[in-house]
Amino acid sequence: MTLETFLGDLSDYLEVNDLPTVSISGNYEQYGNGIYMSPYGGLYPMSVVTNDANPLGLDLQILVSNSSNETALAQTFRIIRLLRDVHNEVIGNTKFLYIQQKYGAFFIGKSNSGNYNYTINFSVLMA
Question: I want to staple 36 with a disulfide (CB 3.0 to 4.6 A). Which of 45, 63, 79, 106 is the partner?
Fold first, then answer.
């Protein structure tokens, strides 16, 4: 499992559930309507006790952007429901020890193109 395969596996998982990801670590202003994923530094994995050797902990931001506020909100809450209960699950080639929502969904504003933008942050621990 690498950072690239982890993002690809999650992207495929969202797509199978009718939530196609437009870009991984891309510029949402460039693409318009869509779902964007971007990893960032997170949990120090040694602070977590697991039976798996060298777990990888990081945080993940998912941004939902859509010209319809209703669609953006609906997609945001579908993502939350889909990912919030992932525990000891293999998705694609990645074993997720957990995916845990950090905070509620945030409305971060309208983009220059007029899209409504919501962000969701998760802590992720992988084996």
Answer: 63
